[in-house]
C-alpha cells in the first residue's frame, strides 16, 4: 500500500476515532438519563469512496470471509470492539486461521455505538471483511458499507 493511501485511510480512521472520543466523553459526563444505555449512531465521512468495492479493495491489507467466534475486548476510549474471527477463505493478503479484528462501535451496559453504514459484527455470524493494519499493528475492519458484508448463507446454527 502506498504512503498516500495509508495517509488517506489513516485520516478517515482518525476522524472517526476523534468523533468516538467526543461521544465517549459526552457520555462519561453523565448526559445519559437514568443510567440507561445510550444508543449512538455515528454518521461517518470518508476520505475515499467507501461504497466502491474497487476503492475499498485497493486500500486494504486483507480481505477474507470469516465467522465471528467471540468478542475479545471492548475499548471505550477508542469506541471499538475487538473480535476473534475464524477465516474460512482468504481473498487478499495472508490472514491467519484466526484473526483478531477491531471494528468501530461497541456495546456495553452504558452505551451502544455503531457506524450508521456498518452495523457491529455479531458472534456466530459470517462476514466478508476488508481489513487494514494501523500504525500500532491493530487489524481494523475498514469503515464503510462494503467492508463488512454479512454472509447468511455461511452462518452455522
Instruction: Compute the average pLDDT.
Output: 79
Distance between the termini: 37 Å
CATH architecture: Beta Barrel
The name CATH uses for the topology is OB fold (Dihydrolipoamide Acetyltransferase, E2P)
Structure description:
By secondary structure, this protein is of the alpha+beta class. The chain has a single domain (3-154), classed as Beta Barrel (OB fold (Dihydrolipoamide Acetyltransferase, E2P)). The chain is built from 2 helices and 8 strands, in the order H-E-H-E-E-E-E-E-E-E. Strands 1, 2, 3, 4, 5, 6, 7 and 8 form an 8-stranded mixed beta sheet that branches. A hairpin with a 5-residue loop joins strand 3 and strand 4 (98-107).
Set out the fold topology:
Layout: H1 3-28, E1 38-42, H2 53-58, E2 62-75, E3 80-92, E4 98-107, E5 111-115, E6 126-133, E7 139-141, E8 148-150
Parallel strand pairs: 1-5
Antiparallel strand pairs: 2-3, 2-6, 3-4, 4-5, 6-7, 6-8
List keywords for this structure.
alpha+beta; OB fold (Dihydrolipoamide Acetyltransferase, E2P); disordered N terminus
Describe, in short, the structure shown:
The protein is 20% helix and 39% strand.
Amino acid at each position: 500500500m502506498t504512503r498516500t493511501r495509508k495517509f488517506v485511510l489513516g485520516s478517515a480512521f482518525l476522524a472517526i476515532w476523534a468523533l468516538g472520543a467526543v461521544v465517549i466523553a459526552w457520555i462519561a459526563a453523565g448526559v445519559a438519563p437514568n443510567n440507561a444505555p445510550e444508543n449512538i449512531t455515528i454518521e461517518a465521512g470518508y476520505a475515499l469512496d467507501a461504497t466502491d468495492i474497487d476503492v475499498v479493495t485497493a486500500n486494504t491489507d486483507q480481505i477474507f470471509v470469516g465467522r465471528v467466534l467471540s468478542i475479545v475486548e471492548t475499548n471505550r476510549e477508542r469506541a471499538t470492539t475487538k473480535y476473534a474471527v475464524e477465516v474460512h477463505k482468504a481473498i487478499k493478503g495472508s490472514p491467519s486461521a484466526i484473526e483478531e479484528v477491531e471494528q468501530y462501535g461497541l456495546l456495553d451496559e452504558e452505551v451502544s455505538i455503531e457506524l450508521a453504514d456498518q452495523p457491529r459484527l455479531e458472534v456466530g455470524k459470517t462476514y466478508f471483511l476488508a481489513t487494514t493494519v494501523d500504525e500500532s499493528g491493530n487489524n481494523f475492519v475498514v469503515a464503510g458499507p462494503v467492508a463488512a458484508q454479512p454472509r447468511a448463507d455461511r452462518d452455522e446454527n
